[in-house]
Design a protein that fits this description.
By secondary structure, the protein is mostly helical. The chain contains five helices and no strands.
């Protein structure tokens, strides 16, 4: 019985001293010195940045949508490689840039875009005929 009481006493003392031991070694959450002050400061800056981001997103949701759109959409010239412009091999760099700019200015108006591309196709076919070059007609108007 005495042995059992002694073991229980030692176990209670060990449990009671464990938090004090962790505190003296600077364990996390125990009030001791943090092991890496720079890490704590980075964490604080991250939390501040996130807090400001959340505040901005709540007060101006349109801005957040624009940022998401900017991240997900490719640049305007990404989809207009030289080989994708009908007759692009017969155009100068300046003409290709002008073509891309005109398409960009037309925007999402499908009717205007189709009309512009059909007109461009006719011009390229005339140019090809004048130079004796055959253009690939299978591709159809491309963007």
């Amino acid at each position: 019985m005495k042995m059992q009481t002694t073991i229980i006493g030692i176990a209670i003392a060990a449990l009671a001293l464990t938090p004090a031991l962790a505190y003296s070694k600077g364990g996390p959450g125990q009030g001791g010195q943090p092991k890496d002050r720079a890490q704590v400061e980075r964490g604080q800056r991250d939390m501040d940045r996130d807090r400001l981001h959340d505040r901005d997103r709540i007060t101006n949701p349109q801005h957040d949508r624009q940022r998401a759109q900017d991240r997900t959409h490719a640049p305007d010239n990404a989809k207009f490689g030289d080989q994708e412009i009908y007759g692009g091999q017969m155009m100068t760099e300046q003409e290709r840039n002008q073509y891309r700019e005109q398409l960009r200015l037309i925007g999402d108006d499908d009717q205007k875009r189709t009309q512009f591309m059909a007109q461009h196709r006719e011009e390229m076919q005339k140019r090809a005929k004048a130079k004796g070059v055959k253009l690939d007609d299978d591709s159809g108007p491309s963007e």
